[in-house]
User: Which sequence fits this backbone?
């Protein structure tokens, strides 16, 4: 049962875009719908006071993802998702937050607890790896 069906959620959360943001982030991190639902629920129910601060919620989601290593057997259906899942955790997080969810380097640095220059490195190297991975020719057929 998803968190949106329970009566324990703070009403502000139900009307916020944070549900979509956290879910999209955790789905792209894990490549798994069920993992994304569980992580989204854990973050929103575990941190209702932060429901108006997407960066804090993303940081909580990131910490939950890393703490429980939710991506042990990550598999993606589409080529770009597979390429994302092939990245290291920090690279994947930075690329998702910047290129998919449009967060700034400063906001991503808060989530990853690092410097903006390190975020820039993660994004640059992650993009290069994705480009190489997605452009590989299919020699099997």
Assistant:
């Amino acid at each position: 049962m998803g968190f949106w069906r329970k009566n324990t959620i703070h009403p502000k959360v139900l009307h916020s875009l944070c549900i979509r943001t956290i879910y999209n982030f955790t789905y792209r991190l894990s490549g798994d719908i069920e993992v994304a639902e569980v992580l989204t629920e854990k973050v929103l129910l575990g941190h209702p006071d932060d429901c108006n601060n997407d960066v804090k919620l993303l940081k909580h989601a990131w910490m939950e993802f890393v703490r429980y290593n939710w991506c042990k057997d990550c598999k993606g259906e589409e080529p770009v998702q597979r390429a994302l899942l092939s990245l290291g955790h920090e690279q994947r997080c930075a690329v998702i937050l910047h290129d998919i969810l449009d967060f700034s380097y400063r906001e991503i640095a808060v989530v990853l607890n690092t410097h903006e220059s390190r975020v820039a490195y993660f994004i640059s190297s992650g993009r290069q790896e994705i480009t190489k991975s997605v452009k590989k020719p299919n020699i099997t057929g």
Observations:
- Helices lie at 11-14, 18-30, 33-46, 54-67, 79-86, 89-100, 105-112, 116-134.
